[in-house]
Amino acid sequence: MLSPAASIGSSSEIVATPERISALTATLQERIRGSIQDIGTITLQSRVLSINAQIEAARAGESGKSFAIVGQEMVTFSNRIQSAAKSLEQDSQTLVMELAEISRVLATRVRGTRLSDLALTNIDLIDRNLYERSCDCRWWATDAAMVNALENPGDDQIVNHASERLGVILKAYTVYFDIVLADLDGRIIANGRPADYASVGVEQGEAAWFKTAMATASGDEFGFQSVTESTLVGGERVLVYSCKVCRGGSASAEPVGVLGVIFNWDGLAQKIMHETPIESEKKALTRVCIVDDAGTVLADSEDKILKEKMDLPDCAGIFAKEKTCATLTISGRDCLVAHAKSPGFETYKTGWHSLIIERMK
Asked: What superkingdom heads the lineage (predicted)?
């Protein structure tokens, strides 16, 4: 039998979530099924009793006719109960299944909204942080020590002073592996951590960070190289932001070289990926990552950075939306995929995509 309503608990104890609705629906379905089985058992026992009554009435002859009528009515009554119970079972099963599906859809929507909110938080944190990096390189490119070193690359004392100045900056800005100065050919003439990274003399003329900086209109703009394993810092994964160093420190003057700041990408991105607040019981089922427009994995809670491309069903449709969530089949498993596009911060926008993929049980 169904438990009395009081057994559910007082209103202050009610957990009002789609998951709770789904659990209660399953419990209700099980209890209805059990009650109908009980009705079937009782009805069967009643029919057996009525048949026995009819047999005894037949043995009694004329005096047992009235009992035979009662026995027949009991059989008819039992059949009606059985029919009503079967109809109730069919109707309740249909309704409970529909309720369960509604609960599942609601639970998926609520979960999807939460995950897409988390995805947006992740990419927003990255955009805000990297905006500062784009400012740093433009600021330091106007530093007198950098300008003097690139205007006088043959003067060891001036170049060494620039290296020392970069070292001072790095002590305060620990998010960088190193800062380098390159001449107009892309050859490194100084860096901030020469004891750690022997990059002086290394040719970087074909590196994206150098070429994009040289292609800018002035020192008010910046160049960029996306996630890469840089030989300048021992193969660490980095982003490089860069800016022309212009004669006299004036952003509109002719360039004399390029300053590049080598940012510790994993130190920011992997921390965000691994510390995304996913419930402990869902952690093993969830992948958190950042990808570019091509789907290249740039940050990943599964640490498959630069080793994999995210090839989602309807990837273009998902990436076109600012924030969304969808149920997709990935590698034969149903997954809840939450997406948020780079919102940008101030004048900066990565244009990347934040994904949280949760395998559904």
From this structure: Bacteria
Asked if residue 122 belongs to a domain, the reply is no
Task: Please tell me the pTM assigned to this model.
Answer: 0.79
Q: How confident is the model at residue 307 (pLDDT cuts 50, 70, 90)?
A: very high
Structure tokens at 32: 């209805």
- Mean pLDDT, the chain, integer: 89
Same domain, 354 and 240: no
119 located within any domain: no
Number of domains in the chain: 3
DSSP 326: E
**CA–CA distance, 92 with 151 (Å, rounded to integer):** 85
DSSP state, 321? S
3 state DSSP class of 213: helix
What are the E-state strand segments in the chain?
176-182, 188-191, 223-230, 236-246, 255-264, 286-291, 297-300, 323-330, 333-341, 353-359
Reference 352, options 286, 299, 275, 277; nearest CA is: 299
Provide the percentage of residues in the chain whose pLDDT is more than 90.
67
Provide the residue type at 282 as one letter. Answer: K
- Taking residues 105-113, what's their average pLDDT? 87
Same domain, 145 and 242: yes
Q: Which tokens go with 9?
A: 């608990």
Structural domain that includes position 341: 278-359
Please give the structure tokens belonging to residue 160.
Answer: 């060494």
Predicted confidence (pLDDT) per residue in 45-77, tens digit = 776 777 776 676 677 666 656 666 666 677 777
